[in-house]
Write a structure and sequence with these properties.
Layout lengths: L1 H14 L3 H6 L2 H9 L1 H4 L2 E7 L2 E6 L2 H21 L7 E4 L1
Parallel strand pairs: 2-3
Antiparallel strand pairs: 1-2
Helix pairs in contact: 3-5
Length: about 90
């Protein structure tokens, strides 16, 4: 039964051209895999907005570290996403 529901959702997503937006949201779940456990302890993904990954960071020190690594993190995330890209990472 769940396979049928999955197929219906996949067809609706495809019909309305939402594949890229849905795939972008996969980035929310890739964060720890990409940045590692230590950085993930001090940051968490909040949402995707207009192709930008919004990340909450718990201190200015970790924000600076993530700014330094931002391009590399963005490349890694986009390498794992299929058929879409995150255009930026916004650190808050």
């Amino acid at each position: 039964m769940s396979g049928t529901i999955t197929n219906v959702f996949e067809k609706l997503i495809k019909k309305y051209g939402l594949e890229a937006q849905v795939r972008q949201h996969e980035a929310l779940f890739l964060w720890e895999k990409v940045v590692g456990e230590n950085i993930a302890k001090h940051s968490r993904t909040e949402k995707i907005s207009y192709g930008k990954l919004i990340v909450k960071v718990d201190s200015p020190v970790w924000r600076s570290e993530l700014l330094f690594q931002k391009a590399d993190i963005l490349n890694k995330i986009n390498g794992l996403l299929k058929g879409t890209n995150i255009t930026d990472i916004v650190l808050r």
